């Protein structure tokens, strides 16, 4: 069993834990106790499992590892946003954000350490991808951010967005497995309808989401509404052009009926004209999208983009409104601690 699964105890199902305890001659309920410590009581070590005997905890430590994520540093924004730098068991660093509003408390979580897509406006895009986060590391991100929300705001998380570091659909299995644990009654018990996975546009995997009948929401980071401009800022568009993405999104919706959102960052003198708005409207009308999030750009050191003037933003939004596009202007949160959209990029080190 251990050879098949490796020695991370959270790789084991409840049934496999039961088999393990049977080999020790332990009672069956011990496996349930351990499972609760792993997924509901959020133990970070076997020593935390205080209703087990010292001898049994020692045996678990000899046979398994529990490579939990830990908070390495925390920053607090003037607007209430909290950014955390997490450290993995092998010394890598990755960031996640708690975004509070009066109505909701949202965790923005990462799926990879770094990113391979090289989007020209995103700080993470200038990092190398070190590795994928495992499903239990993603789960730990949510647990730790939820604990922050309860401590600071006395409220549990209401929403989760996979909009942090990395491309979720290039870590497909771990992201889906993490969401299963997050939404399971013996995990965090959060409704998948409150979870949004954001992708830069991996058409094949968008279709796979449809085939897998997922229940969470999907957001496409569009950011340019024609292939020429999108190729310039998002290299992934070379192999996943806008037509391919429109087809994949329609397939996803046909299979699931789940909510689809477009995300569109406005860049000064690049994608903020009325002609650009018309191109966006054409795409919007080809997909059963619920919403277009128009996002305020957050400057980063390595990119030369800047925010449009406020009157240009207002004209763009007004044009969308006149053409019956359900659009919302999303103001940035956590800019003063580099926690806003596109700013997550802690230099990764291995201890």
Description:
By secondary structure, the chain is an alpha/beta fold. It folds into 2 domains: 2-63, DNA polymerase, domain 1, CATH 1.10.150.530; 70-337, Aldolase class I (TIM Barrel, Alpha-Beta Barrel). Helix content is 34%, strand content 17%. It contains 11 helices and 12 strands. Helix 7 packs parallel to helix 9 (242-256). The protein is elongated and about 70 Å long. The two termini are 31 Å apart. Mean pLDDT is 92; it is low at 1-5 and 347-351.
Summary of the model, kept short:
This protein is an alpha/beta fold. It is built from eleven helices and twelve strands. The longest helix is centred in the middle third of the chain and has 19 residues.
Secondary-structure blueprint:
Layout (H helix, E strand, L loop, with lengths): L1 H4 L8 H10 L5 H11 L14 H10 L6 E7 L5 E6 L5 E8 L4 E4 L3 E2 L17 E2 L2 H19 L5 E4 L9 H12 L11 E5 L3 H9 L5 E5 L5 H7 L8 H15 L3 E6 L8 H11 L6 E5 L14 H13 L4 E4 L21
Parallel strand pairs: 4-7, 7-8, 8-9, 9-10, 10-11, 11-12
Antiparallel strand pairs: 1-2, 2-3, 3-4, 5-6
